[in-house]
Amino acid sequence: MQHNCGVRPALGSHRIVGGVTARRGEWPWIGSLQYQRLHRCGATLIHNRWLLTAAHCFKSLGSVLRSGVGALVVPIQRVIIHPAFNGTNMDHDVALLELAVPAPMSYTIQSVCLPSPVHRFLKSAECYITGWGSMREGGER
């Protein structure tokens, strides 16, 4: 079965950026790593069984992936932290997470497209950043 990555079927070409709440399905490859039902870090679904996140998120932290309101909860089976991760200067701050079961691909759950190792990005390329931070200085998360 062919899988299309990087597709946001819940939306057309309209994008919400600039510190505003994303609509359901706008970033279907982004999930919330949670511990005791509290958001700790974001993660990116790169395959139906694999997430990419920051290594610093796993200092004595067991997590699950939640995907928005009415969240799908998927337990993490294995955490692979980059072998050269340095918690002092945060070099190599990357980790792979293997899900206990495959994430069910749907209208609001899709894997992201990863570029080829030889892909060259243009300096003028548009970039989007997603996360669970404050929408304004000193604001609530």
UniProtKB/TrEMBL annotation:
Pfam family, one: Trypsin
Keywords for the protein's UniProt record, in alphabetical order: Disulfide bond, Hydrolase, Protease, Serine protease
Molecular function terms from GO: serine-type endopeptidase activity
InterPro entries linked to this entry: Peptidase_S1_PA, Peptidase_S1_PA_chymotrypsin, Peptidase_S1A, Trypsin_dom, TRYPSIN_HIS
Domain Peptidase S1: 16-141
Keyword Disulfide bond: yes
Gene Ontology biological-process annotations: proteolysis
Record-given protein name: Peptidase S1 domain-containing protein
